[in-house]
Amino acid sequence: MLGICRGRxxxxxxxxxxxxxxxxxxxxxxxGSFEDGKPVSLSPLESQPHSPRYAAxxxxxxxxxxxxxxxxxxxxxxxxxxxxxxxxxxxRRGNHSRTxxxxxxxxxxxxxxAGIVAGNSSECGQQPAVEKCETIHVAIVCAGYNASRDxxxxxxxxxxxxxxxxxxxxxxxxxxxxxxxxxxxxxxxxAVRIDFYxxxxxxxxxxxxxxxxYSGIYGLMKLVLTKTLPSNLERxxxxxTDITFATDIAELWAVFHKFxxxxxxxxxxxxxxxxxxxxxxxxxxxxxxxRGYNTGVILLLLDKLRKMKWEQMWRLTAERELMSMLSxxxxxxxxxxAVIKQNPFLVYQLPCFWNVQLxxxxxxxxxxxxxxxxxxxxxxxxxKLRVKNKHVEFFRNLYLTxxxxxxxxxxxxxxGCPSEADVNSENLQKQLSELxxxxxxxxxxxxxxxxxxxxxxxxxxxxxxASDNTDVTLVAQLSMDRxxxxxxxxxxxxxxxxxxxxxxxxEAQQFLxxxxxxxxxxxxxxxxxxxxxxxxQFYPVNLLRNVAMKHISTPxxxxxxxxxxxxxxxxxxxxxxxxxxxxxxxxxxxxxxxxETLRYRLSFPKSKAELLxxxxxxxxxxxxxHVWTKGHAPTNFAKWRTATTxxxxxxxxxxxxxxxxRKDCPEYDRRFVGFGxxxxxxxxxxxxxxxxxxxxxxxxxxxxxxxxxxxxxxxxSNKQYRICLKxxxxxxQQDMSRHYGFAALKYLTxxxxx
Length: 754
Hints:
754 residues, alpha/beta, Spore Coat Polysaccharide Biosynthesis Protein SpsA, Chain A, nine-stranded mixed beta sheet, 23 strands, elongated, glycoprotein
């Protein structure tokens, strides 16, 4: 209530100023003119005669100039007041509640105020609004697996607040491009365009600059944006990956209209003492103007920079300074500051709330008085979320909000701003429109066309191809309730692994913390974790398998499930089998016999002989022996007990073994979701394509017990679920007959006989 009263008093005082200051000034001037018997001249160009009244005339001239200044100030003030009235109390909440001068909260020195800030703040209320559907251009340099995760959080914060179309220009290495291209393609956010620029091609432009900063060579690439970005792009906002937005980015875009003269760089003053050179004894930073500027947020007027020959300007400065400094400590920031030191007219100083820098020992607390003051938070310390700051808990919670925010909710349309035509989106809408919403199996059919947002290689991944070209990747999929199996599988299988995880945004962060806290998982770099984000009511089991299959780096793959532990040494055994059975030149599917235990604690058999002993004792069983014998009966376990060489088996109805195949094998059929027929359909298609099923005599895997999944519970309890599954199965068989002709008729016959 007190704040409202103060606001009203300020509004009343401002209104009185607008009304009475011009009136009093005009009365004074006209009174002076009546004394002289002459009218008052308002033109500064009008010559003044030399006379005894020259002193009085000079005084009137200065007053005339002051009148015009007052009129201009009043015009600005009226505009501010009208905007304040138009917004009303509801609009003043949140991040739009205050208007700042350039000096407010920045702690500028007097010299900086006089030299730069005064010029920057002279038009503080004349900020033109950004056009409703004007596209805002954002450039980000991104390289590697971790930076790709950071970009997603940054983009979420921007999308959450935005009201304008966005065009992201991503300068990315091959890894980041693969990850982010897939992510944005599957995210399908309206009115968002993505362009990639090859960061590896730009290395030669900056590789000659020694850089001690942890960002490495990629930390210098903002210097070459005038050359990298399209020549017809006039302006761009450049952001570091460790940025979080707390307001609409259009507010920052509007600041471009405040640039004057030769101002081409919009930057916030550095909030640490780094460039003052007093952090430790013999600390010698690069030259900077005052405290220098932070380059985590930059406004670049590209067209003017190109005309000024920016490329030549920064190169000459860097070459000169490197003769004495030898290397950069803060990457591109050092060079930007050295250029500004020589050419201070280039910079337009942004209010510091556009880049609240949360490194240790900064003056960032002077940038805000209230939550509503915050615009952009910059985690520019190597410590990131562990940085020391009085309000770090609040900042951390804001960051975590976007980190765990459901990205699917950001797929909203911008009303009144038509999106560019997207072929994938149009095809999807066409396919969905052809479905009958009154069909009792509509939700099952719709799931086949659902596009799930996908983040590939969520954690760091390294793989060195085997020289003999026999390498095999274990492929599996899982949800959050099977996370505990990861460590055990990694202990049993030393080869590469490709996993698709079906998680929400919040669960993805829980997984990240779990993995980072596990010595076993962190010691393995040949495991590719691909996050498929939750959407819809069904578990898209075959989509997950396809994602994991598509992103393997080896010529062969072992199609397993997350609940199975492979025998010790299976990886090397499969590599030898691949060569012995000439899998490279034949269509074979090598079967790994599957067993199960009902015991949560199992002394895992170290050999086939030990497994057979446990089988005889009732500690182990052939897989699904009690509930679904047909699924694995064709493996012929009786023959396997004594087999010493691989043997061939024929396909039978409902056969669903776990197999090793070449990476070019058919994908799983996406119509099957949740529980039922997802593997059966795949094995049927392998048989239709004339794959030969060969059982390996000295290989085995064991299924570990777990609570029933939600999907199998639905299958058992929901009659409509079973009806729809039967319908989908019949449609799949019909599709097989159409695609493979007469040879596929046996699948219909086998089904009728089973």
